Amino acid sequence: MTNEVKIPDQETRARSVEKMRSLCKRIDSNFLELDELIASLEADIRNSPLTAYRLGKIKKKSVNR
Predict the structure, then answer these.
(1) Which residue in 8, 38, 50, 62 could disulfide with 12, CB within 3.0 to 4.6 Å?
(2) pLDDT tens per residue, the chain (65 residues)?
(3) pTM of this prediction?
(4) Residue 51: CB partners within 8 Å, gap ≥ 6?
(5) DSSP string across 5-51
(6) Cα dist. 20→17, 27, 45, 55 in Å?
(7) What is the dihedral of CA 22, 23, 26, 27, to 10 degrees?
């Protein structure tokens, strides 16, 4: 019961490396899309009338004290 480690041949390693590079590019692309979505949502929140109302209300409370 020996567990010998078999090193894959050059072609198999090259395919594995190419798959990993491809996956990394896809992951990076997805992160970029998520960052853009987050930025868009944050801009929508900043420009929301509800946010302005809430911020105005907070300022009024701090001034009245």
Answers:
(1) 8
(2) 578 888 899 999 999 999 999 999 999 999 999 999 999 999 999 888 888 888 886 655 555 55
(3) 0.63
(4) 45
(5) PPPPPHHHHHHHHHHHHHHHHHHHHHHHHHHHHHHHHHHHHHT-HHH
(6) 5, 10, 37, 47
(7) -150
17 closest CA partner among 64, 9, 46: 9
Say how far apart CA 37 and CA 29 lie, in whole Å. 12
Q: DSSP letter at 52?
A: H
At position 47, the amino acid (one-letter code) is: N
Per DSSP, the three-state class of 65 is coil
